[in-house]
Amino acid sequence: MYRSTIAGIGFYVPENVYTNSDLTRFMETSDEWIRERTGIQERRFADRYGETTTTMAIKAAEAALERAGTTAQDIDFIIFATLTPDYYFPGCGVLLQREMGMREIGALDVRNQCSGFVYALSVADQFIKTGMYKNILVVGSEKHSFAMDFATRSRNVSVIFGDGAGAAVLQPTEEPGKGILSTHLHSDGADAELLAMYYPGAHANKWLSDAKPFPEQELGGLFLTAEQLESGAALPYMDGPAVFKKAVVKFPEVIKEALAANGLSEKDIDMLIPHQANLRISQYVQKLLGLSDSQVFNNIQKYGNTTAASIPIALSEAWESGKIKSGDLICLAAFGSGFTWASALIRW
């Protein structure tokens, strides 16, 4: 059986930088308020009309392909993770395939939010191991800025997120001890509504405590209403404290699971790249695991939370800056909406 290896990585972030102070033009907030709660100093926002989730993904993918020494025509399969697709349907995978001039290969869209890239990596790993595909493009890309509400009512959510994309090319390797050692995926939907975007959706909404029942109507007309748009009900919702409490438990748990599965311990980690959800979460996990600053990579300060794109962006940036080298043990870990959480252990 082959083992999968990351043959090339790349990332793209938009040119438009919005500092915390810039956001005070749109809402009641402050640089101190945002830094204290999230650790974020600035984020990147895509061009409103010139960039999409797919166009950013293409730029990240092109970098990954070049570093892997391969071309778009060599790709056998696409796995695209995002919660901000260009269209409600079809997914971004086929748009990427079209715009990059790829062959008529399969394209899978993953909707696991912040855990999306690690889930996608795990799926790709299985295809490589079985020999079904030899060149898989795994992408995480997000354009949050287009869907965020920058009014004061939504500041708890909108100050956190940024735009960007990351990509990786997976290939088989027979080199002993190299590549993806294991992946670990989990979910618990008991509190799914604590971090969610309820609309547009196919539910009847009556289970939401603050929602008004829909008008009596036999068919249609329930997907998205003007009232939901005006009231803010169609905006993302997050119970920050509840998410934090769950994340600081599941992050270290899934990291330890990956290490135990491979007979390793925390001291063996050369670089932990956590999903960039909140700097306070990353710092808490780092302290709990007894890791030094040199063993953990964070860039949320510059880019904010880019959900499915955050891990590939951080992985690419860490590699580009020389913080990851051949033979290093890399641990990826994520936690997000659903709730879902996941980890991957990689020998670089």
pLDDT below 50 for ≥5 consecutive residues: which ranges?
none
CATH superfamily of the largest domain: Thiolase/Chalcone synthase
Give helix and strand order, one letter per element, not per position: EEHHEHEHEHEHEEEHEHEHHHEE
CATH class of the largest domain: Alpha Beta
Helix content: 25-40%
The percentage of residues in β strands lies in 15-25%
| Number of DSSP helical runs | 11
Overall average pLDDT: 93
Strand order of the largest sheet: 1-7-6-4-5
**Biggest sheet: strands, sense, closure?**
5 strands, mixed
CA radius of gyration: 20 Å
Q: What global shape is seen?
A: globular
**Could you please say which CATH topology of the largest domain applies here?**
Peroxisomal Thiolase, Chain A, domain 1
Q: Per CATH, which architecture of the largest domain?
A: 3-Layer(aba) Sandwich
Defining traits:
348 residues; alpha/beta; Peroxisomal Thiolase, Chain A, domain 1; 13 strands; 22% strand
Secondary structure elements and their pairing?
Layout: E1 3-12, E2 16-19, H1 20-23, H2 31-38, E3 42-45, H3 53-68, E4 77-81, H4 92-99, E5 106-110, H5 116-130, E6 136-142, H6 155-158, E7 164-173, E8 179-187, E9 195-196, H7 226-231, E10 237-238, H8 240-261, E11 271-274, H9 279-289, H10 300-303, H11 310-320, E12 329-336, E13 340-347
Parallel strand pairs: 4-5, 4-6, 11-12
Antiparallel strand pairs: 1-7, 2-3, 6-7, 8-13, 9-10, 12-13
Structure in words:
With 348 residues, the protein is α/β, with parallel strands linked by helices. It contains 11 helices and 13 strands. Strand 4 (77-81), helix 4 (92-99) and strand 5 form a beta-alpha-beta unit. It is globular. The chain starts with a strand and ends with a strand.
